[in-house]
Structure formats: C-alpha cells, structure tokens
Amino acid sequence: MLGWVFARPRGGPRLHTFFAAMYYAGARPEEVVAIDVGDVRLPDADADDQWGELLLHTAHPEVGRQWTSTGEVREQRGLKGRAADDTRTVPCRPALTRILRAHIEKEGLKPGDLLMQGEKGGDLAGSVIRRAWRRARKEVLTPYEFGTPLGRRVYDLRHTCLTNRLNAGVPAVTVAEWAGNSVPVLLTTYARCIDGQLDDLKHRIERAGELPDPATPRG
C-alpha cells in the first residue's frame, strides 16, 4: 500500500491561512487548528456579498502527550469559558473568504476534514506554527524590531484583530461575543488599545444636542 499517506509540507506558505484566520477572525490558535471544513460557511464565488461565517465549537489545545488518553500532544475540548457543546459564530470578512476558498480548493478538502492539517492529516503542531511565525517575523522586521516584543507571539494576531474591531467602532458587546470573551475581560485587556475615536466621539456629543442660544436683548 504505497502512497496511502499524503505528506504535506511542515510549514511555509500553507500557514498563511492559519495566520489569516487569527488576524481576520480573531480566533484562538487552538480554535483555528480545530476548525472543520464543514464549519466554514462561504458564499458562492460570484456572490455580490463575500462575507462568510466560521462556526467554532471545538478547541484542540496543546497539553502534552503525558496528559492525553490518546498519546497525542493536543486534546479535544469545548470552547474556552463555554459549555462543552456550545458554539460561537464568527464573521468571515471578504479577504478571509478569498483565502479560505483558495486554501480549501488547493488542498482538496471537504466537510469532515480539518481546515488546517499537519503532515499526515492530523492536528497542526504548535512547534510548526511557532517556527513559521518566527521565520516570518525575521524576514519582514528590522533586526531591532525582531528583538522587541512586537508581534513576538502568534497570539498577538488575535489581539490585533480585537483591537482593530474596537478602534473601528464595533460595540464592545459584539466584539466580545465574536471573540468568546466577556465584556469586562475584553475592556480590561484592551482599554488602552482603543485609539483614533476621539474626534468622532466629540462630534457625537455635539450632535446629541445643544442648549438654545439666549434670546437677543431688545433695544
């Protein structure tokens, strides 16, 4: 039975899809590696509206082989902070829709397959993700920037997504719901990241109403 295992590359360009899902959807790493192709709801390629949805309901965090009953590094769990059978729907913006559609077609994936797969079709290893991220940082950042905390963790992609949503004026309740956080945790974590809204807020306050001008005194 030769050739029954299709060996995928360990990293490189394939992980562009993984990093894009974190950056555009704000999902956690353990949620992205657990996404089933059947839970990727994309519009037809010729549809006018190219917004899609990702249905998240499982996470595969790294816990170590000694802590799993299967001997695998990752363990299957429910979403963080939710009941075991709970789900979370996250919007998929057009840029991510294009990336996911191309990835699914190129990899020949179908419902029931993991969206992001390791060499032999199983879970994508965290070590592969971290090595690819380190190489990417080294290629695009200056030596000084590479030595700073700038984007040092893969998780920083999720932070960037949530920060961008808050700065775009998306209500905190909505951002928290999409991210799988509570509003207090969201605001505690990102309160100092919100920027660029001062002028808009000033205009909103002005539009809320002004006291009438005093009557002109009679001569």
Protein model, in words:
The protein has 9 helices and 3 strands; from the N terminus they run ααβββααααααα. With 219 residues, it is mainly α. It has a 3-stranded antiparallel beta sheet. Helix 1 runs antiparallel to helix 3, helix 1 runs parallel beside helix 6 (156-167) and helix 7 packs across helix 8 (183-190). The protein is globular, with a radius of gyration of 22 Å.
Question: Structural class, from secondary structure content?
Answer: mainly alpha
Strand order of the largest sheet: 1-2-3
Radius of gyration, whole Å: 22 Å
Q: Helix content range of the residues, please?
A: 25-40%
Largest sheet: 3 strands, antiparallel
SSE topology string? HHEEEHHHHHHH
How many separate domains? 2
- What is the terminal separation in angstroms? 105 Å
Number of helices: 9
> What's the count of strands?
3
Proportion in β-strands: 5-15%
Low-pLDDT ranges: 1-7
Structural shape: globular
Averaged pLDDT = 82
Write the layout of secondary structure elements.
Layout (H helix, E strand, L loop, with lengths): L14 H11 L3 H4 L7 E2 L10 E5 L31 E5 L1 H14 L18 H15 L2 H4 L9 H12 L4 H8 L3 H8 L7 H10 L12
Antiparallel strand pairs: 1-2, 2-3
Helix pairs in contact: 1-3, 1-6, 7-8
